[in-house]
Amino acid sequence: MVWMLVTAGVLVTSLVTAARERRRNVTLRQIRRRALNLPAEVIGNSAAASGKPGAYFLTPVVRYRIDGKRYEAEIVNASYGRPADAGSSMTVLVSPDSPYSPMDPHGGLGATLRGALVTAALSTLLLAWQLTLR
Q1: Which of 88, 92, 80 is nearest to 28 (CA)?
Q2: Are the beta carbons of 66 and 102 closer than 8 angstroms?
Q3: Which of 2, 4, 62, 108 falls between 20 and 30 A from 123, CA-CA?
Q4: Which residues contact 8 (CB under 8 A, 6 or more apart)?
Q5: Which residues, given as ranges, of the chain have pLDDT below 50?
């Protein structure tokens, strides 16, 4: 019974994560239509706790200009792969409506979404198997 509750909790968590990441994916597709394609300089990485002791997700922080005004912000759809090197350059998509929300144009179905979908599928199978054993 305890394992069924744990499995159900993992399933719910993975579905919530998948929904959040899917929403980001849809936002990226919508922004691509009207966004500005801008050169940006990576000025560092912002660290966020990953849930594991001593481990962090690193999100690139970039600097770019729109109509002569300078902006600095974190990439909102970072895939949490290898950290970006400070001083390197990248292209960002920026909606004129949200200039402080730059997106990686190569982002999309990222590792977090793929992992959440796989976890949801495996949790569903495990839950179904546990129910058949009862």
Answers
A1: 92
A2: no
A3: 108
A4: 123, 127
A5: none
**What are the tokens at 68?**
């002569």
Spatial CB neighbours of 72, under 8 Å, sequence gap ≥ 6 = 43, 61, 62, 63
Closest alpha carbon to 101 in 41, 27, 26, 39: 27
3-state helix, strand, coil in the chain (%, to 5): 40, 35, 25
Q: Is 0.70 surpassed by the pTM of this model?
A: no
Beta bridge partners of 71: 64
- pLDDT for 15-39, tens place per residue? 998 888 777 777 777 777 788 999 9
Angle at 87 between CA 82 and CA 92, to 5 degrees: 70
Q: Which distant-in-sequence residues (6+ apart) come within 8 Å of 31 by Cβ?
A: 93, 95, 103
